[in-house]
Amino acid sequence: MAGEVKTITVVGAGTMGHGIAELAAIAGFKVYLADINIDILNNALQRIRWSLEKLAEKGRIRESVETVMSRITPIVSVRDGEYSEDLAKALSESDFMIEAIPEKLELKQQLFAFADKHAKETAILASNTSSLPITEIAAATSRPEKVVGMHFFNPPVLMPLVEVVKGEKTSEETVAATVDLAKKMGKQTVVVKKDVPGFIVNRILGRLMESACLLVERGGYTVVQVDATAKYLLGLPMGVFELADYSGIDVFYYVFEAMSRRGFRSAKCSIFEEKFKAGEYGVKAGKGIYSYP
Ligand code: CAA
């Protein structure tokens, strides 16, 4: 029986992890935020503070920035190449883990095996993966019925949707508890009933990006024409190429590569591949499809 969630450990403090920790703290949960070194954690805390100040300016949080920040405890998750005792202790106190580490199955399986050993028996172990099978992540644990996908979108504090993904053995109770947690974080949910590559959203985004890319590469349209059509005429919040730059060309590259390994076919189009190979990942690199001086 899943108990009431009071404490959450978020593992991974990057683009997604810091935003998820922020959301959890805004919702009133005690949060442990874990990553491999203190610099990453300090950077994450700075980003959370910046975001909370923005939300406070607009009256979108009820409490002070300091009150929300005080719920977050940063912890270093790895020492001398091993998961740390601090992480084990955080997990032993937590009712829910949300993993947001790099999209590598082996890494995630190692973390889930560790979490399985140290987390409360009742705790749910969730992955924010956008492309890897929940069933295979769950196979690293002795509690696959309590392993679930909880897929947020970038930026987590502003995007309203969470995909709750059922692995082959995920129980209905785990799905219900995860939906409930997402709602407490102010999100709308869609339950992805089958653990298919890309779930729902990235299957749609995959086709959108493929089409945009082909329109430029084979259709003779410019990137700006395609983006302007999507944004100003179709009414999407961002152009398709703009979105790739915003979330990271590397992020989408890995997501679509993982989906393709699992049988999601798409036409070959080289624009994103060339940018990826050149390290031009978008906004964070100062250059992607567009330039960010
Ligand atoms: N926290 C708080 N405030 C933030 C913020 C954050 N993390 N990020 C931006 N803001 C603020 C901005 O600073 C700005 O504030 P001011 O008005 O004071 O200047 C305000 O929000 C509005 O932002 P913008 O002016 O930049 O523009 P916007 O109205 O377009 O909103 C957006 C930004 C919400 C990101 C919107 O453009 C959008 O919805 N874009 C699409 C994003 C999307 O599709 N994400 C999903 C990507 S796919 C993914 O994540 C999954 C995967 O598996 C790869």
TrEMBL record:
Biological source species: Aeropyrum pernix (strain ATCC 700893 / DSM 11879 / JCM 9820 / NBRC 100138 / K1)
Limits of the 3-hydroxyacyl-CoA dehydrogenase C-terminal domain: 198-292
Subunit structure: Monomer.
Taxonomic path: Archaea, Thermoproteota, Thermoprotei, Desulfurococcales, Desulfurococcaceae
TM region positions: none
Residue span, 3-hydroxyacyl-CoA dehydrogenase NAD binding domain: 7-195
Full protein stretch here: 1 to 293 of 669
UniProt name for this protein: 3-hydroxyacyl-CoA dehydrogenase/3-hydroxybutyryl-CoA dehydratase
The family this protein is said to belong to: Belongs to the enoyl-CoA hydratase/isomerase family.
Compartments it resides in: Peroxisome
